[in-house]
Prior knowledge:
There is one protein chain. The radius of gyration is 28 Å and the shape is elongated. Helix content is 52%, strand content 17%. With 387 residues, it is α/β, with parallel strands linked by helices. It has two domains: 2-259, no CATH class; 263-384, CBS-domain (Roll). It has helices spanning 31-50, 57-86, 113-141, 150-169, 177-190, 193-221, 228-259, 279-286, 313-317, 347-354, 377-384; strands at 2-4, 15-21, 24-29, 91-97, 100-105, 268-274, 297-301, 307-311, 332-334, 338-342, 362-367, 370-376. The strands form two sheets. It has a seven-stranded mixed β-sheet with strand order 9-8-7-6-12-11-10.
Amino acid sequence: MPETTSARRTGASTGLTLGRVLGAPVILSWSWFIAAVLMTVLFSPWVMSVRPDLGTGAWVIGFLYAVLLFASVFLHELAHGVAGRLSGQRVAAIELNVWGGFTRFEPTIDTDQKSSSWAGFVISIVGPLVNLVLAAVGWGLLHVVDHASVAWLLLLAVAFANVALGVINLLPGIPLDGGWALQALVARFTGSQYHGTIVAAWVGRVIAVCFLAYAVLPPLFAGERPSVITLAWMGGIALMLWFSAGDAATHAKRARRMETYDLAQVIQPAISATWDADVDRTLAYADTVGPARTSTLVVVLDEHGLPFGILDRHAASAVPAGGERHHVSAFARPLGPWIGVPRDITAPHLLESLTHRPKARFCLVMDGSTLVGVIDLPEFFDELLAA
């Protein structure tokens, strides 16, 4: 399934890096090995029932099935990545895990809602379509291999698995691919990505309930007890779908707030001062800049004219007036990682810029070549994401 990176994501998921495709790492999550064991355990008994002569070799075939299923999921995710690249997006990572996998894209700021929605629809839909094509190929190859041979067993299982992957992923609810496709369609016709996400997330919750109902209701209507194994599988899938849909809705609400967020409310007025500027004169000038009753920050520049610290006004104000002349650099606290942005930048574009400097602590707001403000980024994120 396609996914966009968050500006606050600290790094890629842990696991084995198998290589790189489309300029991005392919990560095999540690959780995939859990899925491989489960697939082997579930598939091997069926192999034994069809080919009892294989003995313990049935477990090897069961593991081969898990590997082939992994390959199918990889091709599914690769299709997302290729479609994304063709639409101008950059792939950040392809991960394979216990739930299948996902393709993560670098964030972009889209100005054309219609074209980006259409691209999102295509990116979402190609993955399941690849699975259906693989299922058709596998079904066709069944007719050219010997019945009940090892190849026949694997092709039959892979064909049915890809049908399931394709059909289930086409269901129109987030976090399934069909859900992101629905989100793109609703956004295309309403002009609102937020409304598209909310609609697809609620459909995803309905689908989650349907998965759970499928495990419970048919056996009850037949006068039987629900299968514990089926209930565990369907319950796990339902929980994953329900909470993933809820997360998508929450992120959509935050993104909507970000689109209309006024950065002016978090920009602290600031001036710059060379490292050897006089403390008294600098403080006197700073007090004349910015709104009344607001302490203007002083960003201290090094010998090369680059920001390296913020003046500690409290410590600097404690220096007796009229005494020895002090430089502002003597009272500068380290600035830490920073990023410079124009004064008219919007919140979405600021977050886009931060993807290239994820460790930035401060944002220096510039009016041309003049420093006019500072944003404390951790405080900005805490305030922005509080809703």
